[in-house]
Amino acid sequence: MPADSPVTLSAWLRTRSDEQLGALLAARPDVARPAPSDVVALASRLAVPVSVDRALDELDAGTLQVLDAVLLADTDGVDPADLVGALPELPDAVREAAVERLTTRALLWGDDRLRAPEPVRRAVRHPAGLGRRAAELRLSLPADLAAAVGELPADERDVLQRLAGDRPVGHLPETPNGSPSPARRLLQRGLLARVDALTVELPREVGLLLRGDRPHGPPRLQPEPAVVSRDPAVLDRQAAGAALESVGRVGELLGLLEDEPAGLLRSGGIGVRDQKRLARALHVTEPEAAWLLELASVAGLLDVGGPHRDEWLPTRAFDLWREQDLPDRWATLAAGWLDAVRLPSLAGQRDVSGKAVNALSPDLVRHTAPAVRRAALDALAGYPPGSGPAPDDLVELLRWRSPRRADRLAPVPDVLAEAARLGVVVGGVLSTAGRGLLAGGPDGAADGMRGLLPEPVDHVLAQPDLSLVAPGPLVAELADTLAVVADVESSGGATVYRVSDGSVRRALDAGWSATDLHEFLARASRTPVPQALDYLVDDVARQHGRLRVGAIESYVRSDDHGLLSQVLGDRRTAAAELRRLAPGVLVSGLGADEVLTVLREAGYAPAGESPGGAVLTRPPARPRAAGRRPGAPGPVAPRPLTPDELAATVREVRAGDAALSARRTEPVRQVPGVTTAGTLELLSRAVREGTPVWLGYVDAQGSGSQRVVRPVSLAGGFLQGYDDRRGEARTFAVHRITSVALVEEEAPAAEDRWTP
For residue 402, what are the contacts with CB-CB under 8 A and spacing of at least 6? Predict the structure, then answer.
């Protein structure tokens, strides 16, 4: 090793250029905030186990194989040229890129010899899938190990071969007849080491012997899956169809919950009965209804509300969402799904106790879900537009990209299915809007979908069969009105609304008159209103309001005394607790709303009445939940540093390191608030000669600090100078200086800190 080679990680970091230090901070942003005070502090942060694990988790299998080769070698390091012999089947370009990636992240350091910091060695417990050395396991191996292994029976050798694969640790099985198992016989032969009562480990020497001329295993090259190609234009049209379906279904779902909220279970989530009701109303399966509920929830459009916070209701954000154009509405759903810490695909599956998991339940929370979704979509984004791999091949590629996170990839097929429902992915290929979602968030997603979704229409087509056909998505105002006067019969590219006795009564209950309904239908329909529809409105309106309900607690009155007698004698109205007050008046101890509900359920058509005797025309207020931030926050990845932040951090580290390593003259000390002649003399000399000084300083908050300053002027009790650490000109009050010393910049670096 050359005499001037660095012998510690911090010394090696000092030899790195500003660009290389910036690349390190960019690759491992968690060590950059707050800015390290100097190189020693940076090296300390790089050794934090959490930071090391995060950096290792981001490495692909090929890079980890190169790291394994260094870890299995002598602790004194490996000559980079020796890696060619250790990994002969690994292409030179792959090996060199892996070394560059590892040294950039300071997971390996050194130039002439590559060394692994001790925290990295501890984090990689079984490099290359090999166990610890026999000496570490306190195991004495046979003198002729090859002969001892060669004489083993087939069942014992099979055990060793399995442990010599990727995982050298196994469990001791129990045999039913009490005879020793092959693993227990290997323990007796001294070829396995016992870790605890049920666990054994294969010594590294045995594993290397069994692997033969491939001690590091086969080369871990990037998979090259078969590529599926599709016409991007056709792909985007299909994505737009899925997006339109999602937006429409979510709007219908929230409209249903607006009219009849779903109950909140004590354990959280929505009950099976409510889920079935919603599925029937939407004409979808129960799993599809669960998916729509989850999608609305993660987008912030559905939450718990009501007087007692025991109902699932649309949120206030739903009203704003309905006013947006279709691309923006879809982008809200897609962005909510991408960042959600919930896995909707788990709804309906059985938990550990065998109980089915309800939709909207806390049991669906998985904090790794956002990372899994982004990993899958990022892999698809690496292919040209219109191209992508098969789902199984994508999982294999993701396992190669992050093998240390392979156990988190089980939901990938479900994630792709959810993305297909939204239109983010079509047939395993990322759509243009999906690429926009990854690159630009909601704005990018909306831009990718613009021009593909139809513009909302402001009219319907009235049909002779009492249906109203919407030839596209409706503007929010028309959709709100139709939700009152008609029921959705089918949805899709064109939505079919059905006008019925019940829907007309609902409109009349909301304060509409027959004239209002006729005018609305004539104004909204581009086709002539069928005569049958006009007759239906008039017939229902003639019956509506013949009964009137008010508050005593409440009363029921009518000019038709026979009708009142019929109501009073009807067993279906017993729950209203009615009694006759006068020939044309019935009264009840229940509230008006309850009496109205009972009479309507019994098949009558009562109308509410104000204290003045007029029919109530004010529609009930729409129930809303306050809403909250969608989902529970998961582990947040460190935010990437901007170029300016990187430059400022590197500058601060360099300045702190220069201050740490500089040699100083004997300092002049003073008490804060009392300026000594020695302090003024030393500062004047520094200004006159342009010599940097080391200042001890107490700020206005009483916090002490030490810094290197290049003085510019000294006047009026203030020192003007350039602070190397902060990279800016500063003004220092002389009376707050606690010590000052001249710095000799040409001195060699010192390893120890100086404290005045």
Answer: 57, 58, 59, 60, 375
Q: State how far the Cα of 166 lies from the Cα of 396, in Å rounded to an integer.
A: 16
Residue 727: the pLDDT is 67
b/e string for 351-387 if b means 16 or more Cβ within 10 A? eeeeeebbbbbebbebebbbbbbbbbbebbbebebbb
pLDDT, residue 667, reads 56
The SS3 of residue 294 is helix
Q: What count of other Cβ atoms lies within 10 Å of the Cβ of residue 63?
A: 23
Rounded to an integer, what distance in angstroms lies between the CA atom of residue 217 and that of residue 210? Answer: 11
Task: Report the distance separating Cα 755 and Cα 734, nearest Å.
Answer: 20
Task: Kindly tell me the burial class for residue 132, based on how many C-beta atoms sit within 10 Å of its own C-beta (0-12, 13-18, 19 or more).
Answer: middle
Burial of 623 (0-12, 13-18, 19+ CB in 10 A): middle
Please state, in angstroms and rounded to a whole number, the distance separating the CA atoms of residues 264 and 278: 15
Rounded distance between C-alpha atoms, residue 508 and residue 548, angstroms: 13
CB 472 within 8 A of CB 511: no
pTM across the whole model: 0.73
CB 431 within 8 A of CB 409: no
**pLDDT value at position 628?**
61
Helical (H) or strand (E) element with 430: strand 429-430
615 secondary structure, DSSP code: B
User: Which residue numbers in the chain have pLDDT < 50?
Assistant: 618, 630-635, 663-664, 745-756
Instruction: Let me know: does 428 contact 390? Beta carbons within 8 Å.
Output: yes
Model pLDDT, residue 754: 32
Is residue 97 within 8 Å of residue 152, measured between CB atoms? no
Give the pLDDT score at 278: 94
Closest of 129, 214, 128 to residue 168, by C-alpha: 129
| Mode of pairing for the β-strands spanning 718-723 and 169-171 | unpaired
Task: Please state, in angstroms and rounded to a whole number, the distance separating the CA atoms of residues 90 and 437.
Answer: 36
Q: What is the largest CA-CA distance in the chain?
A: 115
- How many angstroms separate the CA atoms of 211 and 222, rounded? 22
CA 660 to chain centre: 41
Say if CB 519 and CB 486 are below 8 A apart.
Answer: no
Cβ atoms of 175 and 192 within 8 Å: the answer is no
Cis peptide before 34 (omega within 30 of 0): yes
Alpha helix stretches (DSSP H) within 511-591: 514-524, 531-543, 561-569
Q: Tell me 16's DSSP state.
A: S
3-state class (DSSP) for residue 258: helix
Give the pLDDT of residue 630: 45
**441-459 pLDDT, tens digit each:** 999 999 999 988 888 888 8
| Geometric angle at alpha carbon 506, from 500 and 512, rounded to 5° | 110
How buried is 489 (Cβ within 10 angstroms: 0-12 exposed, 13-18 middle, 19+ buried)?
middle
Which residue, 158, 201, 200, 206, is CA-closest to 182? Answer: 158
Q: Where are the alpha helices (DSSP H) in 232-340?
A: 232-259, 272-282, 286-298, 316-323, 326-338
Placement of tokens 């002027």 in the chain: 713
Dist CA 724 CA 387 (whole Å)? 51
**Cβ atoms of residues 616 and 544 within 8 Å:** no
**What single-letter DSSP state applies at residue 443?**
H
- Other Cβ atoms within 10 Å of 102 Cβ, number: 23
Distance of alpha carbon 479 from alpha carbon 468, whole angstroms: 12
What is residue 123's predicted lDDT score, i.e. its pLDDT?
92
Closest CA to 51 of 121, 119, 97: 119
Q: Could you tell me the end-to-end alpha-carbon distance of the chain, in angstroms, rounded to an integer?
A: 37
639 burial type by CB count under 10 A (0-12 exposed, 13-18 middle, 19+ buried): exposed
DSSP 8-state secondary structure symbol assigned to residue 451 = T
Strand partners, 54: none
